[in-house]
Design a protein that fits this description.
Layout: H1 2-15, H2 20-33, H3 41-65, H4 71-92, H5 97-115, H6 117-131
Helix pairs in contact: 3-5, 4-5
Length: 132
């Protein structure tokens, strides 16, 4: 995000919209404010729980319908889910990086479950145990 405002500030200074002293004061102010823009722990906890619930919801949906789907449909469903989560992560990266990380993690979980049959069986067993 820093590179974006820095490019814009340089462009504005080059166009004469902002003089050099003002641009330097803006850079100094932003450099001092970098340490103050950290997320609070409730936001990180909410994002973590949200990612966990989103991943669990996707796993439950896939596990509930897995036997009814043809192999081609299974492949397309998993491919679509992975693409949607990673695309969402890419879109969220510039505005809200922690959300981007959560979406990429959920997409990676889907990829791991598709690639590792032992992990998929373990998750299926856990889901069946929880649903009883």
């Amino acid at each position: 995000m820093r590179a974006t405002w820095e490019k814009q500030l340089s462009r504005w200074a080059g166009a004469g919209l902002v003089d050099a002293t003002t641009a330097e004061r803006i850079r100094t102010f932003e450099a001092a404010a970098v340490g103050q823009q950290k997320f609070r722990w409730p936001v990180l906890v909410a994002l973590s729980l949200g990612g966990l619930l989103l991943g669990a919801g996707v796993l439950l949906f896939v596990a509930a319908h897995w036997d009814n789907l043809s192999p081609a449909t299974r492949f397309l469903l998993v491919l679509l889910m992975v693409a949607v989560f990673h695309a969402g992560g890419a879109l969220a990266a510039e505005r809200f990086n922690p959300l981007s990380t959560v979406l990429h993690a959920v997409g990676k979980i889907q990829t791991l479950l598709q690639e590792d049959p032992k992990l998929r069986k373990t998750i299926d067993g856990l889901i069946q145990g929880v649903s009883l």
